[in-house]
Specification:
alpha+beta, 4 strands
Length: about 90
């Protein structure tokens, strides 16, 4: 883990991979569907230009949650940013 990582994002990536690999809703998407997970304080995964971007957040108790970004993409005329959600932690304490 890097010094500025809140958590190691690799376990979350593996969970997403296992869930989505043979999930029927992912089987018929018309194009590549990209999901990025960032566990650092700086955005190292370019989560804003992926279909779904997950940014790890922690509340004061140290519980892990996510800020979800949806709908980003490369676009034919340059990248566009995803819509951002309110961070979500256990008990809505982010």
């Amino acid at each position: 883990m890097a010094a500025d990582e809140l958590v190691d994002p690799r376990p979350w990536c593996e969970i997403i991979r296992q869930w989505s690999t043979f999930h029927p809703e992912f089987a018929f998407l018309p194009r590549k569907f990209k999901i990025a997970v960032n566990g650092a304080t700086e955005d190292r995964a370019a989560i804003g230009v992926h279909d779904i971007g997950l940014n790890v957040v922690k509340n004061d108790a140290g519980e892990v949650g996510f800020r979800v970004l949806v709908g980003g993409g490369p676009g034919p005329h340059g990248p566009w940013s995803a819509a951002r959600s309110t961070p979500s932690c256990p008990g809505n304490t982010c």
